[in-house]
Design goal:
By secondary structure, the chain is of the alpha/beta class. It is about 40% helix and about 20% strand. The longest helix is centred in the first third of the chain and has 28 residues, at about 130-160. Bound molecules: NADP nicotinamide-adenine-dinucleotide phosphate (NAP) and magnesium ion.
Length: about 525
């Protein structure tokens, strides 16, 4: 079975077709079934031991804030210490397991998730406020990460033969694991990113401490449980939910931590990077940090563009999952001659977006929690002072953390709403005199994650490819929805270390090359 699982034969998992009523019914049943387990207690897992603690995170449904999803035990600092000792011991055996066997756990887990995809979607809908297609696409992405990194590992094993041998020596370069990785995912893709960050480290032979985002710990637990079911040995993944203030810096600064895989905000990423740069007493290595952080992504539209297509892409990039994507197109920079016409189209399409609970499959759902809700509403107030509000600008239904899709126009390039990541359903639109000025405005941020360029002029497209400074540039399409193995993902500048998740190169970040030469 494993022999057919190569990078060449990899293809992205197909999303569910919800135009089929049978699929809608199956998803609704999965939601009802998960509903019967609302309010359950979930444990910390260290070396396979499930530990329930008194102190718990309460995970709530952002679409209906009176509903509790479950209670997640919190890891104490003593337990974090036990987890890192366990991961360190387990590394001694896990690093000797063959690449083929390591990959087989990912393939098994991918198969299981494929069979039970609605079960995972149901948790994403209730815990993270996703709608059907967003939840479903995230499950596909998680499966893709397992398939793709499993296959990449097998390929990496093959490729280790590539160094030249000379008549007097046989040379080989192998990729060996690093050690214990501290895995810190965000809440916005709480299944896919948690899966990707964890399995990439595991398949390359490392052991891990997985600290899920505190607003979405239960979907992360479901993933860890799945890996257990797939037969992954105890201690390879240690699941340590809890307060980052209690164990975040403790584990980043710990002498036994070998690397940190972080995806989240700029401030936390920079903090981790700085702390990891200090050598702790007894530490024997330079820690590696892979930090993928925020964005202030934008789309540039010139006067030769297909304006209907551009409008659709602007709206879907800005408002899908309420703009809570690192790739969200939160800026649109439009040339003067089509500025008004395009804005009209954008407003029209946005007006059609229905806001409500993802469980009833509304298009725009709630934002993740009260903190995000307040932060976004504050940005909207700032926007009202800086630019012209043309749509939205207020909260929605108070049952959940709903905010109306909001559009500002005539935003100045240096204004707050054009510079800072808002991470909510807020679009800032700026006017440029021509496409070149528009690109300058696009580049005028400290970030560099995704970018879009709409034009039908071939020369300009080539220029845009050269000039727009970002890790993921998309021409004449939306700027979100990167696919594993198709659009390797990672940003420039303060968007991160450009690790290119979903690429073959990615696994080398969790490995070190060892050359050995045998003289004949
Ligand atoms: P966040 O607040 O930075 O949190 C990310 C993770 O870091 C959470 O698990 C959080 O735990 C943890 N954390 C916080 N302080 C820590 C510390 N001192 N030490 C160790 N861990 C710590 O980000 P978020 O709000 O979850 O996610 C949204 C951000 O992620 C946005 O900026 C978005 O652009 C970015 N993002 C980037 C990418 C990308 O690929 N570039 C992808 C997705 C999201 P707690 O939840 O317990 O605080
Ligand atoms: Mg929640």
């Amino acid at each position: 079975m494993i022999k057919t699982r190569t990078l060449e034969t990899f293809s992205n998992e197909k999303d569910t077709d919800f135009s089929q009523q049978s699929e809608v019914k199956a998803l609704k049943e999965a939601i009802s079934s998960f509903r019967r387990n609302l309010g359950n207690d979930y444990p910390v897992i260290i070396g396979g031991e499930k530990i329930y603690t008194e102190d718990k995170i309460t995970s709530i449904n952002p679409a209906k804030t009176t509903e509790t999803i479950g209670y997640m035990s919190k890891t104490t600092q003593e337990m974090a210490e036990k987890a890192i000792q366990t991961a360190t011991q387990t590394f001694e055996t896990w690093k000797q397991v063959s690449a083929e066997e390591r990959a087989s756990y990912l393939f098994k887990a991918a198969d299981l998730m494929r069979q039970r995809r609605h079960e995972f979607s149901a948790v994403l809908i209730l815990e993270a406020g996703k709608n059907y297609s967003e939840a479903d696409a995230e499950v596909s992405e998680a499966i893709d990460f397992m398939e793709f990194y499993g296959r990449s590992m097998l390929q990496l094993e093959e490729d280790r033969h590539y160094v030249k041998s000379v008549p007097t020596e046989k040379n080989r370069l192998t990729y060996i694991p690093l050690g214990v990785g501290f895995i810190v995912p965000p809440w916005n893709f709480p299944l896919a990113i948690c899966t990707g960050l964890t399995v990439s480290a595991v398949v390359t032979g490392n052991t891990t401490l997985v600290k899920p985002a505190s607003v979405t710990p239960i979907i992360a637990y479901k993933f860890v449980e799945l890996m257990e079911e797939a037969g992954l040995p105890d201690g390879v993944i240690n699941f340590i939910p809890g307060d980052s203030s209690v164990m975040g810096d403790y584990l980043t600064g710990h002498p036994l931590t070998r690397f940190i895989s972080f995806t989240g905000s700029k401030d936390v990423g920079l903090h981790i990077n700085e702390l990891a740069g200090k050598t702790a007493k007894g530490q024997k290595w330079i820690k590696r940090v892979n930090a993928e952080m925020g964005g202030k992504d934008g789309i540039v539209i010139d006067e030769t563009a297909d304006l209907d297509k551009a409008a659709q892409s602007i709206v879907s990039s800005a408002f899908s999952f309420q703009g809570q994507k690192c790739s969200a197109g939160s800026r649109a920079i439009i040339v003067e001659s089509v500025y008004e016409e395009l804005i009209e189209k954008v407003i029209q399409l946005t007006t059609e977006l229905r806001v409500g609970n993802g469980e009833e499959n509304y298009c725009v759902g709630p934002v993740i929690d009260e903190r995000a809700y307040n932060t976004i509403l504050n940005y909207i107030e700032t926007g009202k002072k800086e630019a012209k509000l043309v749509l939205g600008g207020a909260p929605g239904n108070s049952e959940g953390y709903y905010i109306q899709p909001t559009i500002f126009i005539d935003a100045a390039p240096n204004s707050t709403i054009m510079q800072e990541e808002i991470f909510g359903p807020v679009l800032a639109i700026a006017k440029a005199k021509d496409w070149e000025e528009a690109i300058e405005i696009y580049n005028n941020t400290e970030y560099g994650l995704t970018g879009g360029f709409f034009s039908s002029n071939e020369e300009r497209i080539q220029e845009a490819v050269q000039r727009m400074y970002c890790g993921n540039l998309y021409i004449n399409r939306n700027v979100t929805g990167a696919l594993v193995g198709v659009h390797p993902f990672g940003g420039f500048n303060l968007s991160g270390t450009d690790s290119k998740a979903g690429s073959y190169d990615y696994l080398k970040l969790f490995s070190q090359g060892k050359l050995h030469t045998i003289q004949k």
